[in-house]
Write a structure and sequence with these properties.
79 residues; mainly beta; five-stranded antiparallel sheet; elongated
């Protein structure tokens, strides 16, 4: 088991890769567009020294195959 001082600071639970759902709560994204969680970034900061845990996800929209990065809190999984 790894013991680090820097862990997921945001305490958000990320959806598993392959989860299908919607991006909700953002005015720039239509909440009816379905997307699938593609992958997670290696870190959330361009300067890895300032990355305090991963809280973003990469999703691929199913209608246009557009790949976009969002915070994990905006993703809502469809049952």
């Amino acid at each position: 088991m790894l013991h680090c001082k820097r862990q997921n600071f945001h305490r958000s639970k990320l959806p598993p890769p392959g989860a299908v759902g919607h991006i909700v709560g953002l005015s720039t994204v239509n909440p009816r567009r379905r997307c699938i969680v593609s992958h997670y970034p290696l870190c959330d900061s361009a300067d890895y020294r300032y990355s305090i845990g991963i809280h973003t996800i990469w999703v691929r929209f199913l209608d246009t195959n557009e790949l976009a990065r969002f915070s994990g809190i905006w993703f809502e999984e469809v049952p």
